[in-house]
Automatic annotation (TrEMBL):
Residues that span the membrane, as ranges: none
The keyword Nucleotide-binding is annotated on this UniProt entry: no
Domain HTH araC/xylS-type stretches: 169-268
Species for this entry: Cohnella yongneupensis
Protein name: AraC family transcriptional regulator
Keywords: DNA-binding, Transcription, Transcription regulation
Domain of life where this protein originates: Bacteria
InterPro entries, sorted: AraC-bd (IPR003313), Homeodomain-like_sf (IPR009057), HTH-like (IPR037923), HTH_AraC (IPR018060), RmlC-like_jellyroll (IPR014710)
Length: 286
């Protein structure tokens, strides 16, 4: 699985999601807060984010500005030929070690990253086997570029542009560990020492969703991950493990957010897993 979208400018709605493949995200232009797990990144042109996918993430953009980004989704198994001798460098180590990580590329680094992305796009536009092969080689070069810069230790702690973003960060950090519990605004107010009306206001302003929309999306995305990683888990077990009190409520939200009922999702995931195993066996026989 490999998809590459270069300098996409389509407007989006903020939707928290996760996936089982790796992602390289490059921010060209716009005004955007990017949420990954319990982290909020206020992006600047030249910011590159690597994600291992399974962490809930979402871009919250200001529609008054053009939102231009390049996004690569890929299955790490595609890199297997490049990770074996004589290609000995594990360019996937930043994904494996950091899970999610931002690089602030400026100057020559920014120019080099954009040059590689443009080269990938040029090869992709050929729509032939040689173009696809050269695009993959350019992508491997991009991963080497990222690998080299991710190994450098962080020299300064990330700063928030305002106390508002810091407060929302604190809310998300708390929700990351308590999202399966029976949450109340009074509880958040007591823990964070901020009024619940203020918390509700700034959370929606920064993320684009309410606190409880975030919690429900987090729970549903975690349910998807549970079903993918544990095919034998029942819908009822996932429902109560993730903090829902009623199976009907869980099933309704799951279908609303994924387009499938929990049982349909489990069946589709099971079929996809079988297809991947069959494809892997066929590739191995070659």
């Amino acid at each position: 699985m490999f998809t590459f979208n270069h300098r996409t400018d389509t407007p989006i709605e903020p939707v928290f999601h996760s996936h089982s493949y790796y992602e390289v995200y490059y921010f060209h232009e716009g005004k955007c807060n990017y949420l990954i797990g319990d982290q909020i990144y206020t992006l600047s042109p030249g910011d590159l984010i690597i994600m291992y996918g399974m962490t809930l993430h979402c871009a919250k953009i200001d529609p008054a500005y053009p939102y231009i980004r390049s996004i690569i989704h890929f299955d790490p198994s595609l890199l297997r030929p490049y990770l074996e001798p004589p290609h000995a460098i594990n360019v996937l180590e930043p994904f494996q070690q950091f899970k999610n990580y931002r690089l602030c590329l400026r100057g020559e680094d920014k120019e080099e990253a954009e040059r590689i992305l443009s080269l990938m796009h040029k090869h992709q536009e050929r729509h032939d086997e040689i173009g696809d092969s050269r695009r993959m080689l350019a992508f491997v070069d991009l991963l080497h570029f990222v690998y080299e810069r991710c190994l450098q230790p962080l020299r300064q702690q990330r700063e928030f542009p305002s106390e508002k973003e810091k407060a929302v960060q604190d809310v998300i950090a708390l929700l990351e560990t308590t999202f399966t519990e029976d949450l109340h605004m009074d509880q958040l107010q007591k823990t964070l020492h901020l009024s619940k009306s203020y918390l509700a206001k700034i959370f929606k302003e920064v993320t684009g969703v309410t606190i409880f929309e975030y919690v429900y999306r987090k729970r549903i995305n975690e349910a998807r991950i549970l079903f993918l990683l544990h095919p034998g888990m029942t819908v009822t077990e996932a429902c109560f493990r993730l903090g829902f009190k009623h199976l009907a409520h869980f099933s309704r939200l799951f279908k609303q957010m994924t387009g499938l009922s929990p049982d349909q999702f489990k069946k589709q995931a099971r079929n996809n897993n079988l297809q991947e195993k069959e494809a892997g066996f066929s590739e191995w026989k070659r």
